[in-house]
Amino acid sequence: MSPGKELRTSACPPASSADEGHGPIRARRGLAAVATSLREAPSGVLVTALVVGAGAGLGAIAFRWLIVTFTHLFSGHADYSAAGHASNPRLPWLGPWFVLLAPVVGGLLYGPLVQRFAREARGHGVPEVMFAVAQRGGRIAPRVAVVKSLASALCIGSGGSVGREGPIVQIGSALGSSIGQALRLTENRLRILVACGAAGGIAATFNAPLAGVFFAMELILRDFTAESFGAVVLASVTASVVGRAALGDTAFLQLPAFHVSHPAEYLLYAGLGVLAGAAGVGFTRVLYLVEDLCDWAWRGPEWLRPAAGGLVLGGLLLALPQMYGVGYPVLENAIGGRYLIGFLLLLLAGKALATSLTIGIGGSGGVFAPSLFMGAMAGSAYGIVAHHLAPGLATSPGAYGLVGMGAVFAGAARAPITAVIIMFELTGEYSIILPLMLAIVLATVVSRVLSGDTIYTLKLRRRGVDLDAHEPVNPLATTPVGEVMEPVPPSLPDTTALEEAARLLVTSDHGVLPVTASDGRYRGTVTARAAAEALTDGDGRPATIGELAELPTPVIAHDALADALHVLVTTQGTGVPVLADDRTAIVGWITHQTILGALRTQDAGHG
């Protein structure tokens, strides 16, 4: 007797047996129909992209709230990087020395969390998403979103000198992947949803929908198609709307008074682009050098590494508190001309070291914001020098700081389109576009000359993964299903009685048979397991097999064997029908054995 029947009382008359049997079946069929529609309909990817975008926007809001909360908890300030050597109001007797302990306590919290639940949440996040898209068909474990949110917020809030864009990219991507896996989407659409999550995260975090789109297309998908571009744009716009509703609609940075007074000033911006490209490559080298040094020095358990290394990081924060957290107030002060050139260069070197140390000890956070920070320091210092040497040309040193932000990021990540778009959206000022484009292009060229890898791909190459390597031809991707499919097994008319259908399923070779309507049109498949479960429902069981028919992901005769294999591993039973182009007639049958036989035949032919 089911639990529902045991709990009924005489005051609540029992539902009819037919209702008991048909209700769950109708619900299952309804959910299956929705999932099938999202998988098959051309607009399905747009609907799921909208959902992922909304989720990424909400995730960005929650993540920023977590960062603010933990920053208040650990430092007593909204942003300690702007507080100087102030003390924590909750621990005034410690004075500024509390920053020695904040990274240690934070490491004791997020170190075990990452080690126990999601080790891929360690580090800056974007390379892991790139790897998932390129090598794992877009599959990311759902728990990554939760662990990454908590770990990165704890790391940044306790003083980790990293950015929030890498975590929100990984959080949004994990959300997109989880939704796609729940709907059993094909790998191509799963990758698109991962990119949608990344775009939505960037768009909501920086109020930059265009930058989110090009970040996802240029760095995550690394490919442009009409379907993927439309879905990513929709997700980015949706996330921006959600983010603006909660965080406001203002430019991230305020541009100082700016104009190019003379065409010769473009030569100064060209020089900045060359230096920024070298700085981006230098940051990449320092990051992985410090990470190697941390690997060499640490011999204890990995879960304790962030706490032990946090003591070293705390010492750096005590000497240079401007390195605490993301540091956007410090960046704005530099662009506003509030620092001298010597201090700008100190902040530049300090950020490279602090970010590298945070990542090296096992911290969780992005490198995008640190590259913007270093670009602002380098560009502002360059602008001050240019203003002193040629005051008639370089009239606004702060503008060089803004251009330097985009150029250093381009030199580190080698993503020129994203760099141009995001700097335009962060400032909301079109007049900066021409010098910005010039500096970013030159920085990208210099980066390519100096290094074969970017700050993201180098992490993967050190693991033996080359995203640009040409893969050998996969016979599963080149052989159409129609060349190897088997004959269609006997079909079950949808009016077949349940008992008769169960007998035929028991004696079939596949444990699953196709179901057809009276006019011969394909209605779906039914498995022996479904028939067996229906037989145990008592009086509420369906009368005919048509009520149990489900529609698996369609396999068309011209599909590649790789697509058919993906459907097989996500479908009950040992085979699926092969359909004609109109998807109403069955023309063949495909099983695991069919695919193995095709591979064996091809191997024998090559031998």
Automatic annotation (TrEMBL):
Alphabetic keyword roster: CBS domain, Chloride, Chloride channel, Ion channel, Ion transport, Membrane, Transmembrane, Transmembrane helix, Transport
PANTHER family according to UniProt: CHLORIDE CHANNEL PROTEIN CLC-E
Subcellular location: Membrane
Membrane topology: Multi-pass membrane protein
PROSITE patterns attached to this UniProt entry: CBS
Signal recorded as keyword: no
Transmembrane domains' residue ranges: 45-67, 94-113, 192-217, 229-247, 267-288, 308-327, 339-361, 367-390, 402-424, 430-451
Region (Disordered): 1-23
One MF term in the entry's GO annotations: chloride channel activity
Taxonomy, superkingdom: Bacteria
Primary localization class, coarse: membrane
Keyword Ion transport included in the entry's annotation: yes
GO cellular component: chloride channel complex
Segments forming domain CBS: 485-544
InterPro entries associated with the record: CBS_dom (IPR000644), CBS_dom_sf (IPR046342), Cl-channel_core (IPR014743), ClC (IPR001807), ClC-type_chloride_channel (IPR050368)
Protein name: Transport integral membrane protein
